[in-house]
Write a structure and sequence with these properties.
single chain, Rossmann fold, 442 residues
């Protein structure tokens, strides 16, 4: 059976099912389509299904053209009917793995999706999990469910784990040219998984097990989380000393070896770095290991929005104003520059913190014209982005730069804002001159 499935994938006779058509699933789908493979996208969000079938994109940095061309060529179709999973030779799960309120792994999306697919699995399929999770998830949670159907893993059904490595808005790296780490539940599973991903990416990096592959993804994000936590803590220390941490980083970056720059900010955002490290800390406790570095970095990073709110109060004090009653414009809702991705954005925490102190909040983001419903910040649903003009800026007591979008008119902010709090070194980085007492960094 293994050889039959591998040959179908290699010869582009296989149908690739992508479960979850978000920031990971949609570009991966288009990667397979670009190689001539047929894709069936499965998603519970009917709006996404309808958009794909109409040849439209709902993610800003993804062009609609390849979707439209794929639909016209009969290479991509989307559905909310999970019974059609039986049509697929491969099923790739790209669904969220958030945290619970107590910072514990929430696998409800993965397990709910698996349970929805389970009745429709058939012999000679391969299933790959791409969602970031703790080591052991694939083997401990997915495998027993699949085996409950009577399948024999590695013989008539194949199971692998391959962590997503999407970087929304990155023009240099995409789904097809980022090396793909992949681990199989058995050697046969690994062979099928290698064929599955070799059909779409330039380089597959096999590892010895699904547990290793799961740990690889966590290491990548923990590395960033710990280093960002370090530079955020140094930022606070430098601020107390009257030293510009951005100048310090520029100086240190001139060292041609042994140093990689990381930059402070108002907090972590996106679906990976604020969340993934806690998956390992939770799992490590099962083995009696206390991951102090990871937890400390998490504490520092989660505390940054409160630090910025405090700095906003200090900036307003220079104008003899309180946060309570002040009109504040938050510039940048997306968690990173130049994208429309607001998942886990620290801007929401800034807005919440300032609102709770009595401020009146608006936001400006050229990539997000209106705030759509979110799981944790329902109070902001429906709020629309305001324009950055001389007239609008004059209405605000403070402009807080939370995301350094290239499309933000920083010059107008400098020209017409009375008070600026910059968490990204955006104004100084652009070389703009500010008036005395107008500009503060956080």
């Amino acid at each position: 059976m293994k050889e039959i499935l591998i040959n179908r994938i290699i010869n582009q006779k296989a149908t690739i099912g992508i479960v979850g058509l978000g920031y990971v699933g949609l570009p991966l789908s288009l990667g397979y389509v670009s190689k001539g493979s047929k894709v069936l996208g499965l998603d519970i969000d009917q709006k996404k299904v309808d958009a794909v079938n109409a040849g439209q994109s709902y993610i800003e940095h993804i062009d609609a053209t390849p979707i439209r061309e794929g639909v016209q060529a009969g290479l991509i179709e989307a559905t909310a009917d999970f019974s059609r999973a039986s049509e697929c030779d491969a099923l790739i799960l790209a669904v969220p793995t958030p945290l619970s309120d107590h910072h514990e792994p929430d696998l409800s999306y993965v397990l709910g999706t698996m349970d929805a697919l389970l009745p429709h699995l058939r012999e000679n399929q391969v299933l790959s999990l791409e969602s970031t999770t703790y080591p052991g998830t694939t083997d401990e949670e997915l495998r027993p469910r699949i085996e409950s159907r009577g399948f024999v893993i590695g013989e008539n059904f194949f199971l692998v784990y391959s962590p997503e490595r999407e970087d929304p808005g990155n023009e240099d790296f995409s789904s097809v040219n980022i090396p793909k780490v992949m681990g199989g539940t058995s050697p046969n599973c690994a062979e099928v998984g290698n064929a599955l991903y070799s059909a779409v990416v330039e380089q597959v990096v096999p590892v010895s097990s699904t547990q290793v592959a799961e740990f690889v993804k966590l290491l990548e994000n923990i590395y960033r989380s710990v280093n960002i936590g370090l530079v955020n803590e140094l930022k606070i220390a430098a601020d107390r000393m009257g030293i510009d941490i951005w100048e310090v980083i520029r100086g240190a970056s001139t060292k041609p070896f042994g140093f990689k720059p990381f930059y402070p900010g108002p907090g972590l955002g996106g679906h990976c770095i604020p969340i993934d490290p806690f998956y390992l800390t939770w799992k490590a406790k099962e083995y009696g290991v206390h991951t102090r570095f990871i937890e400390l970095a998490g504490e520092v990073n989660e505390g940054m929005p409160n630090y910025v709110v405090q700095k906003a109060g200090e900036a307003l004090n220079t104008r003899k104003k309180a946060v309570n009653g002040s009109q504040i414009l938050v510039v940048g809702l997306a968690y990173k520059e130049n994208v429309d991705d607001m998942r886990e954005s620290p801007s929401f925490h800034l807005m919440d913190g300032l609102k709770n102190l009595g401020a009146e909040i608006d936001y400006h983001d050229p990539h997000i014209p209106k705030i759509t419903p979110t799981r944790e910040h329902a109070r902001w649903t429906g709020l629309e982005s305001v324009d950055v003009t001389a007239k609008t800026l004059a209405q605000f007591d403070l402009v807080l730069i939370a995301t350094n979008h290239q499309r933000v008119d920083l010059q107008s902010i400098v020209d017409y804002a009375d008070l600026i709090l910059d968490t990204r070194n955006a104004v100084a980085g652009a070389g703009l001159e500010v008036k005395s007492g107008q500009y503060f960094k956080a």
